[in-house]
Amino acid sequence: MKHIAIGIFGAAALGLMASAASAATLDTVKQKGFIQCGVSTGLAGFSAPNDKGEWQGLDADFCRAVAAAVFGDGSKVKFTPLSAKERFTALQSGEVDLLSRNTTWTINRDTALGLNFVGTTYYDGQGFMINAKKLPGVNSALQLSGAAVCVQSGTTTELNLADYFKKNKMEYNPVVFEKLEEVNAAYDAGRCDVYTTDQSGLYGIRLTLAAPADHVVLPEIISKEPLGPAVRQGDDQWYHIVKWTYFALLNAEEAGITQANVDELKTSTDPNVQRILGTEPDSKFGTDLGVTNDWVVNIVKAVGNYGEMFERNVGSGSPLKIARGINALWTKGGLQYAPPIR
Amino acid sequence: MASQEILREEPSRGSLINDPKIRGLFFQTLVIILLFGSIWWIVHNVIDNLTRLHIASGFQFLRGRAGFDISDTPIAYTSDSTYGRALVVGLLNTIIVAAAGVVTATIIGFIVGIGRLSQNWLIRKICMVYVEIFRNIPPLLVIFFWYSGVLAVLPPPRESIHLPFGSFLNQRGFYITRAVWGEGSWLIAVAFVVALAMAWFVARRARQRQMATGQQFPVFWTSVALIVGLPVLAFLLAGMPLTFDFPKQSTFNLTGGFQLKPEFLSLYMALSCYTAAFIAEIVRAGIRGVSKGQTEAAGALGLRSGPILRLVVVPQAMRIVIPPLTSQYLNLTKNSSLAIAIGYPDLTATAGTVLNQTGQAVEGVLIMMIAYLVLSLVTSAVMNVVNARMALVER
User: Where are the beta strands (DSSP E) in chain A?
Assistant: First the structure.
């Protein structure tokens, strides 16, 4: 029911709040004093509240990074948990300023939905998870013909699933829910044989199941899922701020700037580090962007560089223990590559 | 006419502002202008803002390839079908669960409602407890009760409960043997229709004869013989063109047969039980609304309690029952949108998916609103016809 309400509110908001939405997002954000950030309803490693009720994860930290760039304070964020169905309407209608919610970048969303994706904060692919105890002998997705598959509605996952089974001439029985928790509960209760979503998500979800050791993620990756933050179209300044926050995180890692050494490096004489940290004499990259010149210092102080963010939330420092893999920097054989700050 | 004109002219001569006719006209015009003005403003503003936010609009998206699958498809549907067809599938699922729910809720409701007036203490109290429980729980909880409390705790497919006639029950649903009709089975359908027509004709003639001569005719048993006998005869004549498709165990699930999914079952059971509680109260009110003198008079004429209820009380009670019954049917149809919580692909769920995959929020919500409005209006229209036929014909 909630998505109808969002839809109606969205329609009403589109209809009535003409003047509010057309103002520059940066100005409205500064005026209210915080960034309203759309996140998931709870996906371990990406955006999920911890036992103190604080949002944690890669996506949540990205929101903090943007807040640090704008306000110099990473805590000036308010989080709005959104289901897969609600997320785009919430962004379009101005309910959130930024959508950082493990959302796949596609051409349709980038054009017809009026969104602008800023980059890929996590390169993912869709996989399958099964209960190995109940289904011994299944070790490939190609053995899944006839299975009941649990999937979240309104996702690219739902579409890839249909394509994959069609391409391989297999049959399946979709069991579709709107909310992630509902899919988890249904899979755990045995309503379906297979759980499909982005592989990183499967690892996160496995930790929340009753008996995580019983479940295996099958080796096949059936799609590419570049996950990244998105903003509304038509506000270039805000788009640039969010996009360069992402690039700043990558550039900081590449230059070896970490949460621990950022204060030290402010006196560095390396011109590249000086440019990134805005310590160059009469540097104006920050002010050109619409923020202060020490924006990268603030970002790194708040959440660390991209590598630190990754390890803390999904990598070795987290229960998920996902390897950097293709999410390593380009200098280390991965796909993460940022244009230079100069 | 002349006197009216004089009456009208007299006050207008005093002041145009004080003329009630002109005043009325003025305010009605004002309201209409305001109404259409605001509608125009809203529509214009929505279009304006959608363009400004670079969001595609219009209904062309309905012709696009849907790309997602739906679990319950009453008509042929694959991921290659269009978004429009996906919405039709959703609408049909809503109609199916609402229609099944309405029939079951009415049956349970009438039984419980009459049971609450029973002479038997135990029956009376059981019916009362039923009504009080289901009337006081939100429908969403009833749905969850059936889904998570009743159907999810059933055994997994490999340990299905075997039931008679080759049917199985497990946490994936209720599997029944499917009848596969072979060649010549149209004869059976024809025989059934013919039997129905004949039964109706017999009943009509029997009533006429009873009116004229007072002689009774065993209409019920004749009808049963006709309706059962003729199709069976046709079945034998056509050479028994019937095979069965039994559910069988396969790697993951049971295959074959006909599967009623737990999402459908729990929604259907929950809507039926929930609405039946309200219908029971309506029925009780209807029966109580018939004057006690009617029962006593029928008793004095020598009728037993069964015929009194059937011939005297219920026909009069129906006049009181039908109007509120209509709103219960409408409620049931609208409550079926709670299906989204358990993943039954009704109109709300399907339209929600379409809305999200295409991003056409305004159009999606508009389609949903119109569909539910039309469904409700059709239900009301049908019930109004029934009501008109039941209404007291005064002589």
Answer: 35-39, 48-49, 55-56, 77-81, 98-99, 115-117, 122-124, 126-131, 147-152, 172-177, 194-198, 215-217, 225-227, 230-232
